[in-house]
Amino acid sequence: MTAIRVEKLEKWFGRVRALDGISLDIQPGTLVAILGPSGCGKTTLLRCLAGFTAVDGGQVLFDGEDVTHLPPHLRQTALVFQNYALWPHMTIFDNIAYGLRLKKLPRREVQSRVEAALALTELNGDPDLPRRRPAALSGGQQQRVALARALAVEPRVLLLDEPLSNLDARVRQRLRVEIRCLQKKLGITTVHVTHDQEEALSMADTVVIMNGGRIEQVGRPAEVFQRPASAFVAEFLGNSNTLPGRVLPGGALEVAGQRLPGGLALPPDAATVTVVIRAGDITLRSPGTSPAEGQVVLAGVVEDVLFQGNLYRHTVVVGRQTIVADATTPSRRGPVLAVIPAVKVFVFPVP
Ligand SMILES: Nc1ncnc2c1ncn2[C@@H]1O[C@H](COP(=O)(O)OP(=O)(O)OP(=O)(O)O)[C@@H](O)[C@H]1O
Fold first, then answer.
1. Residue 231 falls within a domain, yes or no?
2. pLDDT at 83
């Protein structure tokens, strides 16, 4: 059975349609990342799952049970927030025990569940830690406490609202791996809202890409990255170049004033198209190099090269357009050929 089913969910805030008929099935024990630009409705969707936001239409089902109008405390979900939301006046132990005491669990069980949650989140190394208050912990430790508090109540659904975005890069990387391991070990159905594509692609079983209150694409991380379903998804994932194009009679493509040969995957019946090419899919070669089978070429001029630590970002002028090409070695300024595998040229009809 599907763990979570969302059917035609609608939410309005005044005249803003935050959710525009969202339908989604989430399989039990999977981690689903909701990814999209700011304001696309990610948090609203998560809050509708938690029951903190009332919906204006549609349904939310957990294990087949309609929970659309259930209050949050009866849904058996646990939410972890970006800002940890720990109670500053309480000790770490009391923070984690809070939900268990609300449920009036016996003292012994509270003790053992808090200890188990501390161990799960690897906070059990320092015997003094449970007696400290949140302010005496690092950001990463505070987020582990928030996670421990969420897991202690043994929720049927774990909801994560940008839990790593306040942490520095190294802690974030480590917690990504730890949260994913923990989620798999416990087999807990998890919905993770993020605007960080690397985080979504590296942690999730399924990625849901949202735009303007709607779902653009649902798929495995490699699927959405390698086979984007829309110009929006193609542009949103990776560092992308977007160029206007025209389909020529015979199935060739004109882009940036140049003709790319046939063999590209073109949308049927479209004359005017949007062409998306990721900066990392472009190889820069000297003029005169012949493309191999399955490659297309745009002639251009390297105008600028910027060292970015792990790559060199080239600004290349192609006709009247400017594109960006990333490479691990720098190319000289001047005439160049931008070589792209034909399968990495994404072409979408202009609506
Ligand atoms: N309480 C509210 N009152 C009015 N408008 C709201 C409210 N909450 C959200 N909105 C609007 O609904 C839309 C979706 O907001 P939401 O917070 O779900 O987006 P998001 O994708 O989570 O964005 P972010 O990544 O910036 O957090 C936005 O246009 C937002 O301004």
1. no
2. 83
Based on the fold, state whether residues 54 and 182 are members of the same structural domain. yes
Average pLDDT over residues 299-311: 95
Q: Which two tokens stand for residue 270?
A: 């479209």
CA 222 to ligand 1 center in whole angstroms: 28
Within this chain, do residues 169 and 252 fall inside the same structural domain, yes or no?
A: no
**Domain end: 161, 192, 226, which one?**
226
Question: Does one domain contain both 203 and 247?
Answer: no
What is the per-residue pLDDT for 1? Answer: 59
Tokens matching residue 170: 């190294």
Give a yes or no: residue 90 inside a domain.
Answer: yes
Residue whose Cα lies nearest atom 1 of ligand 1: it is 13
The answer, yes or no, to whether any atom of ligand 1 lies below 6 A from the CB of 38, is yes
Q: Return mean pLDDT, the chain.
A: 93
Tell me, yes or no, whether 214 and 279 share the same domain.
no
User: Quick one: pLDDT at residue 82?
Assistant: 86
- The mean pLDDT of 179-201, rounded to a whole number, is 93
Residue among 13, 35, 159 whose CB has most ligand 1 atoms within 8 A, to mutate: 13
Tell me which residue has its CA closest to atom 27 in ligand 1: 38
| Pocket of ligand 1 contains residue 329 by CB under 6 Å | no
Q: How far apart are CA 110 and CA 153, in angstroms?
A: 10
- Which CATH number fits the domain that encloses residue 20? 3.40.50.300
Q: Identify whether residues 103 and 158 lie together within a single domain.
A: yes
Boundaries of domain holding 278: 239-349
Is any atom of ligand 1 closer than 6 Å to the C-beta of 43? yes
pLDDT digits (tens, 9 = 90+) for 90-107: 999 999 999 999 989 999
How many domains does the chain fold into?
2
Cα angle 57-49-15, degrees, rounded to a multiple of 5 = 45
Per-residue pLDDT for 2 more than 70?
no
In degrees, rounded to 5, the angle at the alpha carbon of residue 50 between the alpha carbons of residues 131 and 92 is 5
* Dihedral (Cα; 231, 235, 236, 239), 10-degree rounding: 160
Q: What is the CATH number of the domain that holds 304?
A: 2.40.50.140
What's the CA-to-centroid distance between 51 and ligand 1, angstroms?
16
pLDDT tens digit sequence for 241-273? 999 999 988 888 999 989 988 678 888 888 899
Report whether residue 19 contacts ligand 1, using a CB cutoff of 6 Å.
no
Distance 47 CA to ligand 1 centre (A): 11
Q: What is the DSSP letter of 266?
A: P
Sort residue 250 into left (φ over 0), alpha (ψ -120 to 50) or beta.
left
